[in-house]
Amino acid sequence: MNADLRAEVTLPDPLVIAHRGASAIAPENTASSIREAIRLGAKVIEFDVRVTSDGELVLFHDKELDRVAGRPGTIEASAWEAVQTFDVGTWFTGGKFAGEKVLRFDDAIQLCLDGGATPLIEHKTGSAEAYAAVIENLAVGDKVIVQSFDWDFLADFQKAMPGVLIGALGSKELTSDHLNDLKTLSPDWVGWNFNDLKDSDIPGLHALGATVVLWTVNDPDIAISRVAAGVDGIITDVPDLVIEVLKK
Asked: What is the pLDDT of residues 102-117, one digit of tens each?
């Protein structure tokens, strides 16, 4: 594991990251999914964040509301007053989680930390300054990781909060241009699509000083083989299964 990761953020080795919480057994990006991930023993919990039309940062993955909230529109076009009324649980497993509400960003961070887990914050929309303001207000800059597919956002966030761990996300072929950009950005963490990152790519990323994680791996055998090949962590919908096999 990357020795440069700040000592304040305690991460297991190998890393097992709960993807959108325990999203195989509870609706993604909700308080229920975070609580279930904690119950299953996840020490790092990933969740996605978008910004409402009036500037509230909330947990939500999709660009559109229909799949999870059962309505047209987007988070970005909705005010927080309306978003608070959205039911994001009925869609999952026949309505067992009916009435589940959209979780605010600050509440999600606190829920993870209260359960002894590190929040892995994935930026979808919203400014670097807005994310920094919430993290600074909570005084948890030494306890979180912020990641994004938007590397320009990460560069801006680094300027706003240089002490916070950042993760650069990517997919498709890892090219020399990617490596040059990563060298400039110098992220603590690189998360790549497991189908696209070759085992031969791993040493180059480690040479940049980055911890290397793969998304999203739900097959325990694949998790075992990729960790054996040198990756530092696995993002998964089934953290309990992956934790169990990697212990062995």
From this structure: 999 999 999 999 999 9
* Alpha-carbon distances, residue 94 vs 90, 97, 164 (angstroms): 7, 8, 39
pTM across the whole model = 0.95
Report H helices in the chain: 31-39, 66-69, 80-83, 105-114, 128-138, 151-160, 176-185, 202-207, 220-228, 239-247
For residue 230, report the phi and psi dihedrals to the nearest 5 degrees: 125, -5
Residue 4 has pLDDT above 60, yes or no: no
Q: CA–CA separation, 85 vs 72, rounded Å?
A: 14
Kindly give the interhelix angle for 176-185 and 151-160, rounded to the nearest 10 degrees.
10
Closest-CA residue to 234 (of 187, 195, 202, 194): 194
